[in-house]
Each structure stands twice: as C-alpha cells, then as structure tokens.
C-alpha cells in the first residue's frame, strides 16, 4: 500500500509513503476508517478515503500535525494483497 494523509482542516500532508517502500499491515492494526474503507480494493486500485475524526484519531491524535477530531483525507494505492491481508 502507498498512501498520503492530509488533514482536512489544515490542508497539510501529515504522512506519506510515496517515494518510499510501500507499507504492509493487517487491517486489524489501523484506524477504523481504513478498516472500513480498504476492503474490496484490488491490487493496483486507488481510493480516496475521507475519514471523520471519530473514525480516525478522535480527540487524541498521535501527532501535532493532526488536529483533535480532524477529518482526514487519505489517497491510497493498493500495490498488492498478501496472503495474510484482510
């Protein structure tokens, strides 16, 4: 997976994997908005996820670049699906 995360309030990129190695993770280890938004994607597919704060980090974001309860926008590209994905 490659992704870029943008804060909807600040319009600033707070994280990106583009230009680096794609990231790999189980869906059980991500924010609820990703758990709900990624299933059904096919390898090579791209999606824009608009995730309200309640399905992102809520009042306690992990980074000062993200505002409390901020809606987050992620553009994600699914590079491949591993055997343990899901």
Description:
This protein has 1 helix and 4 strands. The protein is mainly beta and 86 residues long. It has a single domain, classed as Roll (Chitinase A, domain 3), CATH 3.10.50.40. A 4-stranded antiparallel beta sheet has the order 2-1-4-3. Strand 1 (2-7) and strand 2 (13-16) form a beta hairpin. The longest helix has 6 residues, at 32-37. The protein starts with a strand and ends in a 9-residue tail after the last strand. The mean pLDDT is 92.
How would you sum up this structure in a few lines?
By secondary structure, the protein is mainly beta. It contains one helix and four strands.
The general outline is globular
Topology as H/E string?
Answer: EEHEE
Average pLDDT metric: 92
CATH topology: Chitinase A, domain 3
Query: Distance between termini?
Result: 13 Å
Strand order in space, largest sheet: 2-1-4-3
The CATH architecture designation is Roll
Radius of gyration: 13 Å
Low-confidence stretches: none
Level of helix content?
A: under 10%
| Quantity of strands, as a count | 4
Q: What proportion of the residues form beta strands (DSSP E)?
A: 25-35%
Task: Give the tags.
4 strands; 4-stranded antiparallel sheet; 86 residues; single chain; globular; mainly beta
Present the secondary structure layout:
Blueprint (H helix, E strand, L loop, with lengths): L1 E6 L5 E4 L15 H6 L8 E6 L20 E6 L9
Antiparallel strand pairs: 1-2, 1-4, 3-4
